[in-house]
Amino acid sequence: MTRLTFISLWLLTTVSLVLFWLYQDKPYPPSAPKFENTTNTGKTHDKQSTSSLTQSLERNLIQNRASDLEILRRLSMALTGTIPSVEWIRDYEAWPEDQRISLALERIFGDRRSSDYLAERFARAFVGVENGPFLVYRRRRMVDDLSEMIHANRPYDQIVKKLITAKGIWTSKPEVNFLTATIDPNNDKEGPDEIKLAARVSRAFLGIRIDCVQCHNDMFGDRWKQKDFHQMASFFSGAEMSLTGLIESEKPYKYRYKRQPAPALVPPQVPFNESLLPAEGSLRERLAAWVTHPENKPFARALVNRVWAMMFNKPLVNPVDSIPVEGPFPEALESLANEAIASGFDLRHLITMIANSSRFQITSRTLDQSETPPFPMTRLRPEQVAGSIIQSASLETVDADSHILSRVIRILQQSEFIKRYGDAGEDEFVGTGGTIPQRLTVMNGKLVEERTEENLVMNAATRIGALAPNDSVAVEMAYLATLTRRPTESETQYFTNRFRGKKKKKRATEMQDLFWSLINSTEFAWNH
Amino acid sequence: MKRPSLHHCASTTSNRRQFLKTTTAAGMAWMNPLAQQLARCAENDVSETRGKAIILLWMAGGPSQLETFDPHPSQNGSTGRKAISTPLKHLQLAQGLEEVAELMNDVSLIRSMVSQEGDHERAVYNVKTGYRPNPTVVHPSLGSIICHELPENAVEIPRHVSILPNEWPARGGYLGATYDAFQIGDPGQRIPDVISPVSKERLERRLQGLDVVERAFMKGRDPEWIASHTRHRATIDEALKMMDSDQIKAFDVNLATATEVNAYGDTAFGRGCLAARRLIETGVRCVEVTLSGWDSHINNHETQSKRIATLAPALAALIRDLKERELLENTMVLCGGEFGRSPELNPLEGRDHWPHGFSFLIGGGGIAGGKVIGATDPEGIRKQPENPVRVQDLHATIQHCLGIDSEKEIITPVGRPIFLSEGNVARELLVTS
User: Fold this and answer.
1) Which of A27, A196, A486, B66 has the most CB atoms less than 10 A away?
2) What's the domain count of chain B?
3) For the segment B115-127, what is each residue's pLDDT rounded down to a tens digit?
4) Containing domain of residue B135, as a range?
């Protein structure tokens, strides 16, 4: 059975490779699909409404623009967690130049890998990476549900409302896991922890660290008082567990403030924009309505800052969950926050706006030798490194349409690699360099060895070496598969010299070594 | 949130900070450069004389204190297994630990460890870092703090190593991934990633190819900025240095004699303990060796017995070995898990999680031998043990013995000051001479 699968895989990939070369110079697709910036409400955005940002984003107006391929790599990395496949690069290059970004985004938005990847990254902010209380928490269920909602482009405010107001059983109602993740088996309270939830809500959804005043008033300013935090925690006091899962009760919240002799009843209240808090509804419904209210600007800013950080691997305001309520704000943060509100918290629209911005499309090459790169160079996250190594071993995109065997192998290899390489956990955007063990994992580890060794069925290195019509094409294909660019003249010359006269086994070895050099480069390991 | 100072313990060495305080107080601030130099010497003296390294034997899943270091055989059948005597009159260990029992003059026991975490993941975090999990920050584990705080010594291999780690190995937390433990499996097997899968000549050709790719990437970029910002090539060079180092052999227990290997027991954990000794000998600061499978919710006695059979020879051989090689004075050995197990057996004859009074063995590196701290209720009814030692107190004690000022505040990458430990030193455990 396994043998048959391998043979069919090999036949499929060989045929596709041959077709690939045959058609590589012809336009594809014959007629490029039209890109419509469709919102989650089904409306097509009026270009006028986004003019302030988009006008300066016309392709030709961006000075020192990165190459189209560099932008594709950034998009693919940020939104799917891997580099683009050679197959995708060919499609992309066949599209009209002025539609490449929009068509690439359209493809990404329709790709299940993207919603899965974004869901995982949002989940890290919403519930962290811990497995949590075993009996009442299913992180995977919640991430899958988030992915469904992102794939359907459900408005972000609706997603957040669903999480905050969740009720029922954690297995059938995945959103309940947002609350049950905070249950502490050692806590006297039989239900979600109000304090942890207040911290999560304020950080993840509002971008404020009000939890720093959990035990005392603000020590670094007068902005927050201890009561601000606990009044917010009070909205979760009624969230309790019962035989029917999570319910909403009338239980009041009590807390003993610093220097007070006894616990006191804490009324639910929001720490700012009090007028936006509705009077009607359950406590959590009221809180959810306030958090996501279009006039509650911190919500929009927190969303923008997080999505920006996902796109650049670096937030506009650092740390990503600590944005001052009164500002000052970077101009891009305010403009995009206004856009997010105007679009009805349409995630795709926000991502498109950022992708089309000059900040995203500018080169990472220094314009002045003394300056840092205009586009921030950031280290790839572990799953991005793993995903990219695995993708580079396949000329076709490894996605939901791939053979089940390819997908299973990808999941297993990725997970094993990350275990050795180290998961960044909730430290999503810490801008430090790599470590020696991480370099050892890529230099000598199993994943790179297995995905570059001689294997005509599974590895692009062998297939390119065996089937490329000449050495130059072979080198070019290796570069496209790994670095999403073509080699420079000197690189082509150097590596074709190495290939000269080598056949079969020696050629496969040479190709493996080339892949090794490319995968171990700064260019591969960093977003640029 | 300043905690009371607790550092009036019997350390015979002064540290740099104390020296500077003294000189300043004595009106000798004018001699600051000299003071700095002398303080630096004092700092080095600390690392030379006491507590240079630690070996943490991590009992993953939560070992039962009743079946290991805190038996209560006099009670009904559900509380604890048969006890054995030790050279200390007042101390008994559980059956199965006979080899360890003989060595109790060299190490001590804390029988009153308490924490507030009863979930595995949270409790592991708590015991390994000294802090409870907090969504606002990821704390570094003990080994990471030690590597960060103690001066770098001349080792070409990672100074922080985790052998047979489970899903929660020691992490650098806010100190950065540089301080993550280097992870290996069974030291009897090939060590992953440190040996190139290709010949030296072929590796050299790969590196030459890499240089070509790197040169092309630098075009239009500032090579110095790239080098300092990414440290990519520097890290590769350091990795290459490690791959070439003779010190790598310390990982390979196949190079040890058969007698040595047999003494530790023919198990992956035994080989891990032997590798730990070899690594410490080479200059590694912290080695964590994990023995999994203590989570005995069902059939407790059998589960614990199997683990004890693996633990006992390895732990005993390690202590003996370190002592014979005069390494015990400078190497602290710790043995424990994320919590203990409940005194009452559940209906499946298992024991559940019990963070209210569990045991930790601690010895060497400035810890007195033959001490027993705290006591749990022999009836298994009262939760609170006598003389409780909190997890953070254990951390403060270890740091103190290693010459690390646990009151030192580290500024995290987001600008938040955090104490290395918020605990109090358990002074009764310290060598007083």
Assistant:
1) B66
2) 2
3) 998 888 889 999 9
4) 52-191+252-429
